[in-house]
Design a protein that fits this description.
Helices cover 48% and strands 17% of the residues. It has 14 helices and 14 strands.
Length: 552
């Protein structure tokens, strides 16, 4: 089945329109948006991390200096020498050993008066501190010291004498430059990690945009919105019913006309069509179980013509579109037209027959045999009246009697004899008259059509009775219905006959079955040879009209 080229053509038009109106593509918008967010997040994260890292490093270096200071202050030799005034000048050497082992910037030992006993600058040994001794309270102190060697993380610990009094302090510092080197390493690590995150984000953005573009058939957001507006305007601006289905048979699109014809209420989008339409021919046509163009399906209220078209874009199936047309009125008019044409053919034949009879009467009058002419006219008049009067005497509803007379006349022109059985009686049928006409008319049409191209004689018998409800039997001497086709012949769309121009086959018996089912009656089809259809309808006082009464 050919694919629908319309979507592809429309995509080409939208892409040409895009070329005339340049704007940022979806890929660029996604990439710029994600990069902007990531850059902002990385910058803020890096700034916060640097601040926290600096604070952590400051604290770590202060604690490190404190450890060195307290350890040095607790050394017995330093305590003893400081208490004695360092007569042997050993404190400077001990401080140098501590510096060599722990790698601080300086280790300065002073007495409680601030006199230095050690310093990295030998010129300052023996000189007094510029600031007061901070540990006279017996506590350690942390902070940053501008100092003579530069800014440093500083820790000061008291040196206690033998009697527990503070006799001096140890001041240990770690220069800020060392801390800055470590911070710089962290910054480079953050920068490298951020760059890696940005690269991965760019790659992810490109993959995401490609995925979105593939799903949206390379359409930009503005084009998608434009298509959506067009689709909504188209769906609700046409008279035909349209139903869109995805590959799983779920409804993706449905317009108001489709809701009316399918009698769908509430939310239908996303619902499987099998949940919306009862089992039968219509559901099979919607799901694609039955194929073909212009297929006919009957619902409770309408005769529908169904077409189902698979849809694929870019070689990928996206589902199908089903259109439904309400042919109820048109089909009724077509059938009425064919009935009128049949009557006209019968009238033409009768015209020739009556012309021949008039010629006989004229000849008899020309010969002067008036009595014979009178007898001949009386004879043919009695023959014409007898059929109509016979029907009216047994069939009370005038519409049904007229229908039978018309069917008998039309069938006669096809060399088919329709007989109403002698036991037929229909006095006061308590059923809907329009339904009765539809059932009888369709059964007779089906019987006459079944006798086409069969050997003569071709006969159809009609039996009508209203003793218990209404009983209708139509039998013919044609080939009949095969035993394996009994259930199929009453399904809408089934027919073994050639299609008439402008008229759909496979509707009559399906319509009869639907009317009988709605009335609570029965329809029995018997296998051949010979067609045999029997209908029983329960009596009812309601004789109001019914739908599709003109589709006889």
């Amino acid at each position: 089945m050919p694919r629908n080229p319309a979507p592809v053509t429309r995509l080409a038009q939208l892409r040409a329109r895009r070329g005339r109106h340049r704007s940022l593509t979806l890929t660029t918008q996604i990439l710029l948006g994600i990069l902007s967010l990531l850059v902002l997040a990385v910058v803020l994260g890096g700034f916060l991390f640097t601040m926290l890292s600096n604070q952590t490093l400051d604290r770590q270096y202060q604690l490190r200096a404190l450890g060195i200071a307290t350890t040095t202050a607790a050394m017995p030799q330093i305590r003893e020498d400081l208490a004695a005034g360092d007569p042997r000048h050993l404190i400077e050497g001990l401080a140098a050993q501590v510096m060599a082992a722990a790698k601080p910037a300086y280790v300065v030992v002073t007495d409680r008066n601030g006199i230095r006993f050690s310093h990295p600058n030998p010129a300052l040994v023996g000189k007094k501190l510029e600031e007061p001794v901070a540990v006279l309270d017996g506590q350690t102190h942390l902070g940053f010291d501008p100092g003579s060697l530069g800014r440093s993380a500083n820790a000061k610990a008291p040196i206690f004498g033998a009697d527990g009094s503070v006799i001096g302090q140890v001041s240990v510092g770690i220069l800020d430059t060392k801390e800055q080197d470590e911070q710089l390493q962290n910054i480079w690590l953050i920068t490298g990690f951020s760059a890696l995150v940005l690269l991965l984000s760019v790659a992810g953005s490109l993959l995401l945009s490609r995925r979105i573009k593939r799903v949206t058939f390379n359409l930009e957001p503005a084009e998608i919105a434009f298509l959506l507006q067009e689709r909504e305007a188209l769906l609700h601006g046409i008279r035909e019913a349209v139903v869109g289905l995805d590959d799983d048979g779920r409804v993706t699109v449905i317009n108001e006309e489709a809701r009316r014809l399918l009698q769908v209420e509430g939310t239908a989008l996303g619902t499987p069509v099998t949940d919306l339409v009862p089992a039968g021919r219509l559901r099979d046509l919607l799901t694609g179980t039955l194929g073909g163009a212009d297929q006919v399906a009957l619902t409770q209220d309408a005769l529908l013509v169904v077409n189902r078209m698979p849809v694929a874009i870019g070689g990928r199936s996206i589902g199908s579109v089903v259109t439904l047309r309400d042919r109820t009125e048109i089909e009724g008019l077509v059938r009425d037209l064919h009935s009128v044409q049949g009557l006209m053919e019968a009238m033409r034949a009768l015209e020739h027959e009556y012309a021949n009879r008039l010629h006989v009467v004229d000849g008899l009058l020309e010969l002067g045999d008036v009595e014979q002419a009178r007898t001949y006219v009386s004879q043919i008049s009695a023959e014409s009246r007898s059929l109509g009067e016979g029907l009216r005497s047994r069939i009370a509803p005038p519409e049904l009697a007229a229908l039978l007379l018309a069917k008998i006349t039309v069938a006669g022109e096809q060399d088919v004899l329709i007989e109403v059985t002698d036991e037929s009686r229909l006095e006061h049928p308590m059923v809907d008259q329009a339904e009765l006409l539809t059932i009888v008319g369709n059964l007779l049409d089906n019987a006459v059509d079944a006798l086409a191209n069969t050997p003569r004689p071709r006969t159809v018998s009609v039996q009508l009775d209203d003793a218990d409800g209404v009983f209708i039997a139509v039998r013919d001497n044609g080939p009949g219905v095969p035993a394996d086709k009994i259930d199929a012949v009453v399904v809408d769309g089934y027919s073994t006959k050639d299609t008439r121009p402008g008229m759909r086959r496979g509707i009559g018996l399906a319509l009869v079955r639907r009317i009988v089912h709605r009335a609570g009656g029965t329809l029995d089809v018997f296998p051949g040879p010979g067609g045999n259809f029997e209908v029983w309808l329960p009596g009812t006082a309601d004789t109001s009209g019914t739908d599709m009464r003109d589709a006889q």
